[in-house]
Design goal:
320 residues; Deoxyribonuclease I, Chain A; 3 domains; 6-stranded mixed sheet; 31% helix; elongated; Endo/exonuclease/phosphatase; catalytic activity; Endo/exonu/phosph_ase_sf
Length: 320
């Protein structure tokens, strides 16, 4: 979905990640910032940010608060943007809420700020900024003290607004849409645009250009190496070093180097037209279901078909 929609930034709450997930969380072309819940299961937040954006993480040192902050560099003479994602579990203690309020006060300052997350405060009526519970009213006070505006108006789970989107600048955030789901989640996705001039890194990383490689010459160079002499009377480790040295020497002569380009807009090879078709159909059925034009069973059927197509594409690839 990230590659299909071509997002620059993806914020996720309730990742349920721990150290055992370190190998499986990478996304090609994106930097990953994550904060896992400490000492117990569940929770956690993450930010995937496109690699060409100039971003630095901000340390908060509040292990109890499940939040993550980064600073996105603006272009020359343009303001930086502070971006945060937060997960507030249901029935969170007031003490942890207070730590979050303090954290928000510390990081915000005079910076342009965008904060998104799952806050589990269903009793807040955002049209009038009122709430039934004292804890929710205190949250509203923090929002007002930091001059934040909340931009989500449609329900994000059932009939309640749990996912929230805040900013402290008029015109900084636009195109806010609620709809669609990620994986098996029962929460709606929030899509929005951050309207600002953001600095993009110039990629200076070099890589091997195998499309212009002379494999014929490479093969001849390798065949000329007197391997019995080079590897004779050596241990396994020494043989490996000698072998690697000869391969790299031949590579330098036969494989040119080019600058690595951005992967922006490129889909993974397993993202076939059939998979894209099912994803689009699922989204279409979802909107029809929300408008009451089709039954829930019809939507679930489309969702199952999408999972079936997108969940099993990789084994069908032929690697030669």
């Amino acid at each position: 979905m990230v590659h299909q929609r071509n997002y620059d930034i993806v914020a996720i709450t309730e990742t349920w990640w721990d150290d055992s997930h370190s190998w499986s969380t990478a996304l090609d072309g994106y930097k990953l910032f994550r904060r896992d819940r400490k000492g117990r299961r569940g929770g956690g937040v993450a930010l995937y940010i496109r690699g060409v954006l100039d971003v630095t993480g901000i340390e908060t040192n509040d292990d109890e608060v499940e939040s993550l902050w980064v600073k996105i560099k603006g272009k020359a003479n343009k303001a930086d943007i502070l971006l945060g994602v937060c997960y507030r579990p249901p029935n969170q203690d007031e003490e942890v809420d207070n730590l979050f309020y303090k954290q928000l006060n510390n990081v915000s300052g005079s910076s342009a700020l965008v904060l998104v997350g799952d806050f589990h405060l269903p009793d807040i009526f955002w049209e009038l900024n009122t709430a039934e519970k004292q804890q929710s009213r205190k949250f509203l006070e923090c929002v007002e003290d930091n001059f934040l505006s909340q931009l989500v108006r449609k329900p994000t789970r059932g009939g309640t607004v749990l996912e929230l989107l805040f900013t402290n600048r008029n015109g900084l955030v636009g195109d806010v849409e609620v709809g669609g789901r990620l994986g098996h989640s029962d929460h709606e996705i929030i899509e929005f645009s951050i309207i600002g001039e953001i600095r993009r890194n110039i990629n200076k990383i070099s890589t091997l250009d195998f499309r212009r490689a002379d494999f014929g010459l490479f093969k001849r160079l390798i065949q000329r190496v007197p391997w019995e002499t080079v590897l004779g009377n050596k241990g396994v480790q020494e043989r490996w070093v000698c072998f690697k040295t000869e391969i790299l020497r031949a590579q330098e002569q036969t494989v040119p180097v080019c600058r690595k380009t951005s992967q922006r807009g490129k889909c993974p090879v397993w993202m076939s037209n059939e998979v894209l078709k099912e994803i689009r159909n699922k989204k279409k059925m979802y909107h029809l279901f929300k408008e009451g034009l089709i039954s829930q069973e019809v939507f679930k059927g489309a969702a199952r078909a999408c999972r079936k197509k997108s969940g099993r594409p990789k084994p069908s690839l032929n690697l030669t």
